[in-house]
Amino acid sequence: MVEAWYMDESQEDQRAPHRLRPNRPVSLEQLRRLGVTYRKLDADNYETDPCLKEIRRAENYSWMDVITIHKDKLPNYEEKIKTFYEEHLHLDDEIRYILDGSGYFDVRDKDDKWIRISMEKGDMITLPAGIYHRFTLDENNYVKAMRLFVGEPVWTAYNRPADDFPARKQYMKFLAEEAQ
């Protein structure tokens, strides 16, 4: 089961857990109110998993690939790690399914505080278009993940501030409606 918590303000190693003391856990319901959805799947059988096949059909995830983030596997590794950790948003949902290894997705809550979501093998997350977020490996320094898209993939990340994009405005409207 995925675990999430509010982060401390430390600027130390981004790959550390960065839990507040005392810890302030975040529930799946709290994540859902931010538009973040979570599923647990069978990563050992992802190539033939009927649940994944049904999710792809239902959500119209027509394109996918697999990325391995490790210093020996990813060209321009250090540069990519820095880029992934810059706060940004996308104009489309970001869907990631962890096939092996582990890492963290950080998302901003409605009060602009960071929530860290610990992802491991079998976890699938969907971040809504317009949410500010970032990704980093954890201290294991390895993750293999499936990236899913509706239609052709768009890799463009818009670093903060990016508040004038329609996707951001739509996301802020969603948050306002969830608060009512």
TrEMBL record:
EC number: 1.13.11.54
Keyword Cytoplasm: yes
Cofactor: Ni(2+); Fe(2+)
Disordered: region residues: 1-20
The protein's name in its UniProt record: acireductone dioxygenase (Fe(2+)-requiring)
GO biological process, one term: L-methionine salvage from methylthioadenosine
Compartment(s) of residence: Cell membrane; Nucleus
Matches recorded under SUPFAM superfamilies: RmlC-like cupins
Catalyzed reactions: 1,2-dihydroxy-5-(methylsulfanyl)pent-1-en-3-one + O2 = 4-methylsulfanyl-2-oxobutanoate + formate + 2 H(+)
Keywords recorded for this protein, A-Z: Amino-acid biosynthesis, Cytoplasm, Dioxygenase, Iron, Metal-binding, Methionine biosynthesis, Nickel, Nucleus, Oxidoreductase
CDD domains recorded: cupin_ARD (cd02232)
Membrane topology reported for the UniProt record: Peripheral membrane protein
Superkingdom of origin organism: Eukaryota
InterPro entries per record: ARD (IPR004313), ARD_euk (IPR027496), RmlC-like_jellyroll (IPR014710), RmlC_Cupin_sf (IPR011051)
GO molecular function per UniProt: acireductone dioxygenase [iron(II)-requiring] activity; metal ion binding
One Pfam family recorded for the sequence: ARD
Organism from which the protein derives: Glareola pratincola (Collared pratincole)
Any single GO CC term annotated in Swiss-Prot or TrEMBL for this entry: plasma membrane
Main location: membrane
